[in-house]
Amino acid sequence: MKIISSLKYHLRNYFGFSRAETNGLLLLLPIIVAFLFIKPIVRELYLNYSYSEFRNKFTQTELKLIFDIKDSLLIQEKKVLEITQPSNSENTHFPIYLPKVTKIQLKSWGIPENISQNLIKYQSAGGKINSADDLLKIYGMTDSLVNSILPFIQFEASNPKKVPAKQTIKFNLNTVDTLELQTIRGVGRVLSKRIVNFRNSLGGFIDQHQLYSVYHLDTLVAKRIIDNSYISKDFIPIRITLSIENIDQLASHPYISKKEAYILINYVKEHPNMVDFKEFYKIPAFDTLKIERITPYLLLK
């Protein structure tokens, strides 16, 4: 019994047979084996005896029984071969309907068993196959195999309902509070407070990319804030008047050190007739980038 159970298991696993098909095949196997032994005997009888001698040796009833058995065995052999070796010539008449395809059908099309299993598992897990590109997502599937079966495949109907895009309301980066900032994924209580403090110390954001200067603010989180915020076109930042009285305020600006604050104040004192900030380009301690960063927050007397 163990041998038969093992044989059933291997037959079902290898060929993908159902329980009924496996039992049927096991019933046919003894008949096939018997036929293999009877066939040489019958052939020997034909070779050694003339038909008249053969007929005289057996009665009409016995002859009829022999030929009936032979015909029956030929029919059974043909059925077994049709199950185990499906004809590829019939493929052109039966398209593959992917949503209801079985392992046996896939095998009959020449698709290897491991790829057939991967395809069925993919669909069972909710995967949709609506194109040749989707077929290539199946592990083991090749371009040549897809091209060979593509003309005969009926893909799943794909009429997905269009889900309207969720409209997000962007917030003003210069007026947003800490609670609203925390609606952005990755921004917590500490980071939201740090962003607002940085904005206040600047005098306001004039460019969203200034967020990248916030201490410990991840670039991906900064990008999310940029994508969900805006800066009013008419926004004017808070400006610091360049005078000695404002030296501490100037030195507390994120872009200006105390030493740089004194350099700016002294330069303005030495050039009382300055009308714009172009004069700052002459200061050796400041490069162009530095001047462009600080001048929007400065004001001449």
List its salient traits:
301 residues; mainly alpha; DNA polymerase, domain 1; two-stranded parallel ribbon; two-stranded parallel sheet; 14 helices; 4% strand
Could you walk me through the main structural features you see in this protein, from its secondary elements to its overall organization?
By secondary structure, this protein is mostly helical. The protein has four domains: 2-85, no CATH class; 90-154, Photosystem II 12 kDa extrinsic protein (DNA polymerase, domain 1), CATH 1.10.150.320; 171-230, DNA polymerase, domain 1 (Orthogonal Bundle), CATH 1.10.150; 240-299. The chain is built from 14 helices and six strands. The strands form three sheets. It has a two-stranded parallel ribbon. Strands 3-4 form a two-stranded parallel ribbon.
Q: What's the end-to-end separation, in Å?
A: 105 Å
Helix/strand structural class: mainly alpha
- For the largest sheet, list the strands in their spatial order: 1-2
Mean pLDDT: 78
Gyration radius, to the nearest Å? 43 Å
Question: Secondary-structure element order, as H and E?
Answer: HHHHEHHHHEEHHHEEHHHE
Question: What does the main sheet amount to?
Answer: 2 strands, parallel
How many distinct folded domains?
Answer: 4
Runs in which pLDDT lies below 50 for 5 or more consecutive residues are 84-93
Portion in helices: 40-55%
| Tally of DSSP helical segments | 14
Number of strands: 6
Strand content: under 5%
